[in-house]
Write a structure and sequence with these properties.
Length: 148
């Protein structure tokens, strides 16, 4: 397998946004573990009788972010990167808005965090949709092997 650099401006932009997104996700996951007690309180707080789920998820979500981020940085295992990142990021607005249903947390207080998470999800979608350099490189390798 040959190393292949992006050749077009869209491939370059896609690669750079994928790597930037991956590092950002990785750093957020690490930051959650570095300030774990505070993060655990935020994740579990306001869930009422479901607080145990918030505590459980506080242990899992940063690991998913770290794994997904690292995979996006290296540009490998796209399906695992998409699942881990999607589960981590998708759980944030669900959890924030669930708090306004199961407890006295104000929807007004939860919406900014949910909207922030949706921005991350939009960037995630853009990264997944536009990360095509590896596929282009595979096509170029196949063409060179076939002689066409």
């Amino acid at each position: 397998m040959k190393f292949c650099l992006p050749k077009t401006s869209i491939q370059i932009a896609s690669t750079l946004i994928r790597i930037s997104f991956g590092f950002s996700l990785l750093f957020v996951g690490l930051a959650h573990y570095m300030t774990f007690e505070a993060f655990k309180m935020v994740a579990a707080g306001g869930l009422g009788g479901l607080e145990f789920l918030g505590i459980f998820w506080a242990y899992i979500m940063p690991a998913l972010m770290i794994l997904g981020g690292a995979l996006y940085v290296i540009g490998k295992y796209d399906e695992i990167a998409a699942w881990t990142t999607g589960l981590a990021l998708g759980s944030i607005p669900v959890g924030m808005l669930l708090k306004s249903v199961v407890s006295l947390e104000s929807l007004v207080d939860m919406m900014p965090m949910a909207i922030n998470a949706f921005i991350w999800l939009i960037v995630f979608y853009i990264v997944v949709k536009s990360s095509s350099c590896e596929g282009c490189c595979k096509k170029m390798e196949q063409i060179s092997e076939d002689g066409n």
